C-alpha cells in the first residue's frame, strides 16, 4: 500500500493536537439525549411493521430503486408519497431527494444563477454552505438572526437594481438551527423578502415533527405553524430527524419542481431511494398526522427541561431555545469533552460539539430531547451537569 500523503497526515495530527479528532462512536445502551429521533419514530415497531405490510399488500417486492429516478428508479410509490407530503405541508408540489444534504446541495447549486445574490445566516448548515459554494451566484453571510445587517445587505442590492441591473435575491435560513436550537423571526423575514422582492428559502430539518398546529395534525414545521407557507419560495423538509427515516423533500411550485428535476445534479445523477425507504416515509407521515400523544409528550419535555435548568441555575449556560435542541456553552474542546465523558459514565448519552464544527470558544454540550425521555431522566442529567460545572 502506498504511503499516505504527508499533508493529510499533518492535518490529522493537527486535529488530534486540538482535541478535535473525530472517531465513529461505539454504541452504548445509554439514556438517549443525543439522537435526532425526536418522536421515537426510528424505533417504532408499528411503523416498521406497517411499512412491511404496505409493501406486501401492494406487491412491491423490490430491494432497490434499480437506477436514478430519471431512468428506472421512479417507482409509483414516489408519486403517491410526494402527493401526501405536498398535501400535508400545504404546498403545490414536493420532490423527494435521497437526503437533506442532497436536497440542499441540489437546490443551492442549481437554482440561484450567475449574478444572483444569496444572503444566508452565518449558522446555516454545512449542506447549505456546500451547495452555495457550488453555485455561480454571489453569496454573503449575515450575522446570526441579525436582520439589521440583512436589511443593509438588501438595501445595497436594491441600490444596484435601481441602476438597471436586475438579479434575483435569495434569503436563506433555518427554522430551527441545528447547533443552537433557536429560531429566527420568520414573520420579519417574510416582511423583508416582500419589501425587497426576494425569494425566501427555509430549511425545516429540525422543525418537522416538533412544531405545528396540533388541532389539525402536529409536526408540520414552524413555517406552517405560523401560517407563512404561501410566503416562502422553498422549504427543505428532512426526514432523518422527527420522522425517524431517511431522505428529504423540497416543497415549492410546480415550476420549481420541474427545474430541480432538470438541473439539480444531486437529484439527476444518483440512484433513487428503494421502495422500502419511500414506503417508510409514507407511513411515517401517516403517523405524524395521527400521533398527537408523542408530539405533546415532546413539547411537555421541552417545557420541563427549560423549567429544570432555571431551577438549577443553569439557564446562563444555555442558548435560548424552545425546540428539541438545548445547548450548554462550555468553552474549550478539552473541557466540554471531559464533562460529556462524565455524563456518559453516569449513563446519559450527551454529546460534545467541538470546534471547528462550532466556532472556537463556542464549544457546547448538545442535549436532544425526545417524546420518550422521562422527567426523571431530564432531572437526573441536569443535576449531574450542575454538579460538574459549579
Gist of the model:
The chain is an alpha/beta fold and 390 residues long. The chain has helices spanning 6-17, 45-57, 76-88, 100-110, 126-134, 147-162, 186-195, 222-225, 254-263, 265-268, 275-290, 292-311, 333-345, 375-389; strands at residues 31-32, 93-97, 117-121, 138-142, 169-174, 199-203, 234-238, 248-252, 325-329, 348-349, 351-353, 364-368. The chain has two domains: 25-41 and 292-389, Aspartate Aminotransferase, domain 1; 62-290, Aspartate Aminotransferase, domain 2, CATH 3.40.640.
* Radius of gyration from CA coordinates: 22 Å
Shape: globular
Gross CATH architecture of the largest domain: 3-Layer(aba) Sandwich
Oligomer description: single chain
Q: Enter the CATH topology name of the largest domain.
A: Aspartate Aminotransferase, domain 2
Largest sheet composition: 7 strands, mixed
How would you state the average pLDDT, rounded? 95
Q: Just give the CATH class of the largest domain.
A: Alpha Beta
CATH superfamily membership of the largest domain: Type I PLP-dependent aspartate aminotransferase-like (Major domain)
Strand order in the sheet with the most strands: 2-8-7-6-5-3-4
